[in-house]
User: Fold this.
Amino acid sequence: MKTSAKPITRKLSTNDVLRLLSGSKEVKRLTLSEGSYRHLPKRVLKSLKKIGVSIEVVKLKRGPPTKVNVFMIAKLHKSELPADEISKQTRIPLRTVYYHLKRLRKLQEKADEEEE
Assistant:
């Protein structure tokens, strides 16, 4: 029997974990987001490991995916178009264009550091 697991994204207390474990089904694996895992007390982690519950940490993406390819924005930016023109051509918000340009700049800096 295969069950689909949805990651737990909220902060769990010790009582929440006990409530999960005392349910009708036997829990063998917990799937937690990175934030939930960080806030889980260490003693709870040790206890879960002792009773045989494995914990899987999942990195979740925030927000909806962008409608335009990032490389398209990079190409338009290299052709020396200002951000507002890129926004008009691609029909995405100007703030999103600035976000992608910032990410591209960080990736470029990281690539430059690796070359040195």
